[in-house]
Design brief:
By secondary structure, the protein is an alpha+beta fold. It has 16 helices and 13 strands.
Length: about 575
């Protein structure tokens, strides 16, 4: 028998590997490393997302060649200066670069004025800079088109009079007239989207009714001729109404054209635009802290409630928020019954054997299938086969324009339901298996049927675990993008899936999604630098939205846990 060894101090040596100390430390270290990585990722998204909308000062940079650059500091980096650039420097600049071991700092300025410069950003190296100032008269102007403008206000035309920045009460007059111009713009949009769009909707509806009668009875039938006469009368009435609304919109547009603002960039070039095309403007270097906060929160309000503009790199994401939430709820409604019923049959009713084992293996394998494969299946089966059949049966008058025979909100939700149903099945089976067998036996012994036992005993006990599976499915479905690109998501949806026209909910329509919006802005915009801030803030919003939906589901699960933990059967 091996004798225990002792140290010089009389203490027994401990075999750490036998007690598992190294493995314990490695597992704990791995956990800490994972938590640090998650926290670092969330901090990166949180920090970049939160500061995106905070107004920054505008720098006026005079370069050694006499040109001027004005804009917000976007980011900076240290770079190794290439030889041909180094040879072109003067002695002072060469010495500066030599003192930094051949490196120089360069700053990326967001200069805006894309319609003037044909670029949004400009790199400026330190050796090019003569002076950097922050003039108080520089404005940051956000526009409906062409992105921001950086410069000064030259003049403002208010119908038949012109006011200059040096006139008394200039800021108040400009703010008041701008607010009136924006209200006129909103009135025009409301007329075009509500009244005029409503007329077009009802005219198209009447045309489809006439087309349906034509397909059913032919264009020589009495029913068709009577319907055609009514359609012609209805069209004339609608055209008169259309002209009335169009005249009102044209009057407002003409009025807006009389209110313009002339902006001047630092190089001297001017740009005249309608006052109604300004979203907001402010003297970036002459703001108090509370004025900056006001701009910050107004940008957040626009982001959460408005539609995108400028190729989705500016404006809001309200349609994408709406589409993401609606699609996620439809996904849960579709996946819950199928996943739960499948798991109930496999665990409670099916005879355990080879066939059931094969089914379980297939379900587990489905969870590993790439999501794009589900997208191809959804497009082929749901859109082309199922949707095409629905169009032939119920919407023949619209053909060849598809209604359900193309990507839409319904098919996207069902596709993601197929993607996430293995998660729900596995989680539900585990929850059902965790219910003690003694509860089932006690219920059956009291005379309950198998279904009564499942409904009144097993399912309530397993419900928290089932909700865990639904939470996982909801979180995965809300963040998926690849399948949606094939079955309904679009860059910009002109119409929401919900409106004021019967049947009010239009599941056949395409929709916007926050995940696809992130991909589109980050990788398909004309300028990735311009879209980068929107990528961070949209990612922050998507994480927050998924967290809120998960928190709601988790609160329900915890409530059920507390309820059934104290029940006795």
């Amino acid at each position: 028998m091996k004798q225990p060894s002792f140290s010089g101090r009389g203490l027994k040596k401990v075999d750490l590997s036998a007690r598992g100390e190294p493995f314990l430390w490695s597992m704990g270290g791995t956990l800490v490393l994972g938590m640090i990585m998650i926290a670092g990722f969330l901090f990166l998204i949180l920090w970049n997302g939160i500061v995106t909308f905070y107004p920054k000062p505008i720098k006026r940079v005079l370069l050694d060649n006499g040109s001027i650059v004005a804009g917000e500091m976007h980011r900076w980096e240290r770079v190794k200066l290439e030889k041909h650039l180094y040879d072109a420097l003067n002695e002072k600049s060469r010495k500066t670069v030599q003192d930094n071991n051949g490196f120089t700092r360069r700053v990326l300025y967001k200069i805006g004025n894309y319609d003037v410069y044909n670029e949004d950003f400009k790199w400026v190296a330190d050796y090019q800079v003569v002076t950097v100032t922050e003039p108080e008269n520089l404005y940051y102007v956000e526009r409906m088109e062409w992105g921001p403008f950086v410069g000064t206000i030259d003049s403002v035309k208010l119908n038949d009079r012109i006011i200059k920045p040096d006139s008394s009460d200039f800021s108040k007059q400009l703010a008041r007239e701008h607010q009136a111009a924006v209200e006129r713009r909103h009135a025009i949009e409301e007329i075009e989207r509500e009244e005029i769009a409503g007329i077009s909707y009802y005219l198209e509806k009447d045309r489809l009714k006439l087309r349906k009668i034509e397909l059913k009875t032919g264009n020589q039938s009495k029913a068709y001729k009577e319907a055609n006469s009514r359609f012609q009368v209805r069209t004339q009435e609608m055209n008169l109404l259309y002209e009335k609304f169009q005249q009102r919109a044209d009057l407002l547009k003409t009025e807006n054209k009389a209110y313009t603002i002339t902006l001047k960039e630092v190089g001297g070039a001017t740009k005249t635009i309608k006052l109604s095309d300004l979203v907001r403007f402010y003297p970036a270097n002459n703001l108090s802290f509370f004025q900056k906060l006001g701009i910050y929160f107004s940008r957040w309000a626009e982001f959460l409630s408005a539609e995108p503009r400028e190729a989705n790199t500016e404006g809001g994401v309200m349609p994408a928020i709406f589409g993401t939430v609606i699609m996620t709820f439809l996904l849960v409604i579709a996946v819950a019954p199928f996943g739960i019923m499948a798991a109930l049959y496999l665990r409670e009713y099916a005879k355990q054997g080879v066939l059931v084992s094969i089914v379980r293996v297939c379900v587990n394998n489905l969870a590993g299938v790439p999501s794009i494969v589900y997208g191809v299946f959804g497009l082929g089966f749901f859109a082309y086969i199922l949707g095409g059949s629905i169009d032939k049966l119920f919407y023949a008058e619209k053909l060849p324009n598809p209604t359900f025979g193309t990507g839409g909100l319904l098919w996207a939700s069902l596709t993601l339901a197929l993607l996430t149903v293995p998660v729900v099945i596995v989680a539900t089976e585990e929850a059902l298996a965790a219910v003690p067998q003694s509860l089932r036996e006690g219920s059956l012994a009291c005379g309950s049927s198998k279904w009564q036992t499942i409904k009144n005993i097993v399912l309530p006990k397993a419900l928290p675990g089932i909700l865990t599976g639904l939470i996982l499915a909801m979180a995965r479905g809300a963040g998926e993008v690849a399948p949606l690109m094939l079955v309904g998501v679009v860059k910009l949806a002109p119409e929401l899936p919900v409106d004021t026209f019967f049947p009010f909910v239009h599941l056949e329509r395409s929709f916007m999604h926050l995940g696809f919006h992130i991909f589109d802005v980050g990788f398909q915009s004309r300028n990735s630098e311009a879209g980068k801030p929107m990528v961070f803030v949209t990612t922050l919003l998507l994480i927050g939205l998924v967290a809120m939906m998960n928190a709601f589901a988790i609160s329900i699960r915890n409530r059920l846990n507390r309820k059934y933990a104290t029940d006795h059967f």
